[in-house]
Write a structure and sequence with these properties.
- With 260 residues, the protein is of the alpha/beta class.
- The chain has helices spanning 15-18, 21-28, 40-49, 67-84, 101-112, 125-133, 147-152, 186-193, 249-252; strands spanning 6-10, 32-36, 54-56, 88-92, 117-119, 142-146, 162-166, 202-207, 217-222, 236-239.
- The chain is built from nine helices and ten strands.
- The chain has a five-stranded parallel beta sheet, with helices on both faces.
- Helix 4 (67-84) packs parallel to helix 5.
- The chain starts with 5 loop residues before the first strand and ends in an 8-residue tail after the last helix.
- Bound molecules: S-adenosylmethionine.
- Residues 13, 92-95, 98-100, 124-125, 166-167, 169, 206-208, 210, 233-234, 236 line the site of S-adenosylmethionine (SAM).
Length: 260
């Protein structure tokens, strides 16, 4: 289908059902598949596509080890295969280009070394969230931030738009933890959100199911309950707008809307 040396693909949040036809075709033609997936069914599916060449990269994670170090090791592993000339696929859960450093970096490095490399889109947690919460980013707009990035940088919040926060359950912890991340920075996240939202503002804790037929976990809380809400590493936070959209008079007066 594609003749790239490296194909970076996504397995969706639930591999059974969210693997695209395009991704399946690429996996079936691969000599090597390196993968990071969250559930054993996904692993089994990938291994069937490439019985002799599938290898999990999960073992590169280590308790308390900086995640960035692991990501660099993943890239090194993928590039070593690309350099042998074997048709290499790197499969990441969700969308491979969404909150996934190793996928983008593998492509950058492969291309820099003269190899053809391509990313195929997959279904991300955010895609599942739009479906399960029944929201549309076009209604009032939608801001999407990684929680630690949101805390560390001077991001301007438009609280008339929707807000999605990723990796809140890992906030401030740049290492890998198998069971529990150090979330001692969570009070700082609450403090920062309270600059833009009232204490009683609704927040939805969202977890997409990783198996077909299972229901999503959607837990509505109010903002002040954030510290006791039991956010996990797979939770994504969704905050609806806190106020009505304010029209921009500068452009409102100058645009000539074609309304038929
Ligand atoms: C390293 S990112 C990986 C994102 C993934 N590449 C994607 O396309 O969705 C991990 C973060 O994705 C979100 N996430 C992963 N799995 C999820 C799930 N099952 N339900 C909701 N959010 C999820 C959480 O915010 C989590 O902290």
């Amino acid at each position: 289908m594609y003749d790239d040396h490296l194909l970076v693909v996504g397995t969706g949040i639930r591999t059974t059902g969210q693997l695209t036809v395009e991704t399946v075709a690429c996996m079936q033609c691969a000599a090597r598949i390196f993968y990071i997936v969250a559930d054993p069914v996904a692993e089994e599916v990938i291994r069937r596509f490439c019985p002799d060449g599938a290898e999990s990269l999960y073992g590169l994670y280590g308790e308390g080890k900086p995640r960035m170090q692991t990501y660099q090791e993943m890239v090194d592993r993928i590039l070593t295969s690309v350099r042998t000339g074997e048709r290499t696929v790197a499969a990441f859960y969700g969308h491979p280009g969404v909150f996934a450093y190793a996928s983008h970096e593998s492509i950058r490095r492969a291309r820099a070394e003269g190899y053809r490399a391509r990313m195929l889109p997959g279904i991300s947690a955010e895609d599942c969230l739009f479906a399960d919460l029944g929201i549309d980013p076009s209604s009032n707009g939608c801001q999407s931030y990684e929680a630690t990035d949101f805390l560390l940088n001077a991001r301007s919040i438009d609280n008339s738009s929707q807000l999605i926060l990723w990796q809140a359950g890992l906030i401030g912890d740049l290492t890998f933890r198998r069971y529990a991340y150090d979330t001692s920075a969570m009070p700082l996240l609450l403090e920062k959100l309270l600059l833009s939202y009232p204490r009683t503002h609704p927040v939805y804790l969202y977890e997409a199911p990783s198996a077909p037929g299972c229901e999503p976990v959607i837990r509505p809380i109010v903002l002040e309950q954030l510290l006791t809400s039991g956010i996990t590493a797979t939770t994504t936070l969704y905050l609806p707008p806190a106020r009505a959209t304010v029209p921009d008079p500068t452009y409102l007066s100058r645009i000539r809307l074609q309304q038929g």
